[in-house]
TrEMBL record:
Catalysed reactions listed for this entry: meso-2,6-diaminopimelate + H(+) = L-lysine + CO2
Residue ranges constituting the Orn/DAP/Arg decarboxylase 2 N-terminal domain according to the UniProt record: 24-266
The name this protein goes by in its record: Diaminopimelate decarboxylase
CDD domains given in the database record: PLPDE_III_DapDC (cd06828)
Residues in the signal sequence: none
Family: Belongs to the Orn/Lys/Arg decarboxylase class-II family. LysA subfamily.
Catalytic center residues: C328 (proton donor)
Assigned EC number: 4.1.1.20
Role noted for this protein: Specifically catalyzes the decarboxylation of meso-diaminopimelate (meso-DAP) to L-lysine.
Modified residues (N6-(pyridoxal phosphate)lysine): K49
Pfam short name (any one): Orn_DAP_Arg_deC
GO molecular function annotations of the record: diaminopimelate decarboxylase activity; pyridoxal phosphate binding
Taxonomy of the source species: Bacteria, Pseudomonadati, Bacteroidota, Flavobacteriia, Flavobacteriales
Length: 411
């Protein structure tokens, strides 16, 4: 999308606003499937938590994708978007047996990462196919908050607990049809990922009725010019060779599955905010926008970088600005950024706003959540209306409090 298209959308629908480019989503999807074209059976399950708007899910359905879900609500969204139960994998963490059973009743693929829950589920439902999430104890990811395969992680069943796992399966006679891992997000070193895959292949040999092996995702995308990203083509070639060799050894063509979220939608997204004012202090020039971490929490949450561009004045002289929001706490999008000269009313564009941005938005400070637009076939389609005050009050119950009567003094 170009600057003019973005400005036109901001003018038509207002700011702040999220915009997603369907063409970029499709190109990333095709890039991933092409990287693993030598695998006979490939399944891409889009990670719904990255961006869960139902129109985005419907678009992935048209591409032939499945979906990866982590809550009953995401399962229900997937079904509402037209996905068949067999196209959905349910990979929750820390949920009750009841929630897993409810998802299972809908016919989706269950993925369990807890020995206790596994034993309870297998005892009650031994014939239901179950995937097992393994923790390979491999540290990968760009930040400790998004690295989930290490030894202290709450995710997955430890490879050191495999004997216990096999005992549960033997005792319950349950049906294990898949094995899964996810090491973390923003993976830079594909050799680390390949090392973890070897651990998963060795573990898979313990199970005789597998239908698929799921390698999660976590592929890194570039956040700025010259940034490092996961070499998906090199990974595709090397992992495909290893996977095909394993299938020959296993004696069966299994499905190779992935669960990308950020890789598919991050670069498709743009977040636009309008400058309320430019404030000069003794040491800093602040560009204050009509948004805050209630709409885009990632920079404050775990220090993520989003390029910030002044699309209203692209030829202006570059100056240093600290871009901040209107939330009444420290609320910084970027410190000392070189940005073309900013004036009141300018529109700033935050790049890489497709993944984990709107989906983590809130109503903090009782602010409205922004609108969402999908740019599809050279047209802007509104896919979420901007909230109103009625939305803030929705589900709240106001109690009528009778005024307290003042006590009369007895003389």
């Amino acid at each position: 999308m170009d600057r003019g298209q973005l400005l036109k959308i901001a003018e038509e629908f207002g700011s702040p606003i999220y915009i997603y480019d369907a063409e970029k989503i499709e190109s990333q999807y095709k890039r991933l499937t092409s990287a693993f074209k030598s695998v006979k059976k490939l399944k891409i399950n889009y990670a719904v938590k990255a961006l869960s708007n139902i129109s985005i899910l419907k678009f992935f359905n048209t591409l032939g994708s499945g979906i990866d879900t982590v809550s009953m609500q995401e399962v229900q969204l997937g079904l509402a978007a037209g996905f068949k139960p067999q196209q959905i994998i349910f990979t929750p963490n820390g949920v009750s047996l009841h929630e897993i059973e409810e998802a299972s009743k809908l016919g989706v693929q269950i993925n369990i990462d807890n020995l206790s829950i596994l034993e309870q589920f297998g005892t009650k439902h031994p014939k239901t196919p179950v995937c097992i999430r393994i923790n390979p104890h491999v540290m990968a990811g760009g930040n400790s908050n998004i690295s989930v395969g290490h030894i202290d992680s709450k995710f997955g069943i430890s490879i050191h607990q495999i004997p216990h796992l096999l005992r549960i399966i033997d005792n319950t006679k349950m049906n294990i049809n898949g094995i899964h891992m996810h090491t973390g997000s923003d993976i830079l070193d594909i050799d680390v990922f390949l090392y973890a895959s070897e651990i998963l292949f060795e573990t898979a040999k313990q199970f005789k009725n597998l239908e698929f092996i799921d390698f999660g995702s976590g592929f890194k995308v570039p956040y700025k010019a010259g940034d490092i990203e996961t070499n998906i083509e090199e990974l595709g070639q090397k992992l495909s060779d290893k996977f095909n060799d394993f299938c020959k050894e296993y004696g069966k063509d299994l499905t190779l599955a992935f669960e990308p979220g950020k890789f598919l939608v991050s670069e498709s997204g743009f977040f636009l905010a309008q400058v309320n004012s430019v404030k000069q202090t003794t040491s800093t020039v602040f560009a204050q926008v009509d948004s805050g971490f209630n709409h885009l929490i990632r920079p404050m949450f775990y220090g993520s970088h989003h390029d910030i561009i002044n699309i209203s004045n692209p030829e202006g002289r570059e100056r240093f600005y600290t871009v901040v929001g209107y939330i009444c706490e420290t609320d910084t999008f970027g410190n000392n950024r070189r940005i073309n000269e900013i004036n009141d009313g300018d529109i700033l564009c935050f790049k890489n706003a497709g993944a984990y941005c709107f989906s983590m938005a809130s109503n903090y400070n009782s602010r409205f959540k922004p609108a969402e637009v999908l740019w599809y076939n050279n047209k802007a389609h509104l896919i979420r209306k901007r909230e109103t005050f009625d939305d803030i009050l929705n589900n709240q119950i106001a109690i009528d409090f009778a005024p307290k009567k003042e006590k009369q003094l007895v003389k």
